[in-house]
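quick q for whoever's on today - can somebody do inverse folding on this one?? i tried earlier but teh output was garbage lol. tokens:
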């Protein structure tokens, strides 16, 4: 299976930064495989808080095109968090990294899921107000419509996927989502893999009526994200090597070059 269609003879790193050049302008973002990261900025928080080992810029250069951004409103600004774990980063930095990347890679688009987590008491509308102030300052490269666009209409832009009533964009309810994230005695790691595989099966049989987001990530009391990622990302690579066609948005913890290569370079 591959969502990468060109760059013969180019280094894989160069191909990764611009892999969407090989996808037709008329393809909707729901019509080809896109690799994403769960809690994309979660580099801190210990064994159970950290979900990635690479920063945002490195992820984008590797080929990741769906970001899961969790923000907390604090005194008129948006800070990046994973639950109670502060990620030592503000949303303004996330916006700048994305816009800088797209300026250098105009063929690409970035889907960005944005949600609010916790935070202090605030007035209704404060989160959305600050969010829009930040993206306006970062430049005009943002798509905030409700419809899933064709790639040609959003090259060089961040496509907002809204998980907040206070920001515009494609509503999270638009997507058919598999996110069974909790592992315990009743919901084992193998049960999680069955759900992942069944979700892919619905797409491949042509039964999916919505754009797809399939979270490969999960966690449990005795199963921190780094452990589950090793197990499930390996299963994912084997599965993808054996399958053809669109798998939708596939979201992983601890993304690696190997995951990108097999999913988007067909290696």
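ok took a stab at it. sequence:
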């Amino acid at each position: 299976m591959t969502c990468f269609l060109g760059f013969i003879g180019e280094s894989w790193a160069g191909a990764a930064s611009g892999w969407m050049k090989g996808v037709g302008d008329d393809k909707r973002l729901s019509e080809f495989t896109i690799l994403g990261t769960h809690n994309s900025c979660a580099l801190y928080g210990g064994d159970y808080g950290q979900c990635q080992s690479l920063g945002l810029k490195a992820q984008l250069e590797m080929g990741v095109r769906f970001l899961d951004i969790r923000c907390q409103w604090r005194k008129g600004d948006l800070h990046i968090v994973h639950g109670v774990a502060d990620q030592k980063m503000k949303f303004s930095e996330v916006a700048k990294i994305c816009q800088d990347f797209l300026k250098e890679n105009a063929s690409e688009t970035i889907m960005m899921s944005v949600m609010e987590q916790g935070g202090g008491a605030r007035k209704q509308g404060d989160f959305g107000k600050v969010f829009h102030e930040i993206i306006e300052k970062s430049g005009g490269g943002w798509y905030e419509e409700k419809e899933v666009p064709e790639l040609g209409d959003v090259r060089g832009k961040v496509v907002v996927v809204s998980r907040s009533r206070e920001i515009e964009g494609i509503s999270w309810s638009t997507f058919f989502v598999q996110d069974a994230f909790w592992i315990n005695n009743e919901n084992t790691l193998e049960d999680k893999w069955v759900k992942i595989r069944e979700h892919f099966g619905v797409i491949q049989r042509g039964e999916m009526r919505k754009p797809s987001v399939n979270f490969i990530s999960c966690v449990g009391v005795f199963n921190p994200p780094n452990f589950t990622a090793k197990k499930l990302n390996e299963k994912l690579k084997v599965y993808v090597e054996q399958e053809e066609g669109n798998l939708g948005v596939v979201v992983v913890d601890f993304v690696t070059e190997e995951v990108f290569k097999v999913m988007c370079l067909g290696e």
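fwiw The chain is about 35% helix and 20% strand. also Residues 4-9 have pLDDT under 50 and may be disordered. so keep that in mind when u check it
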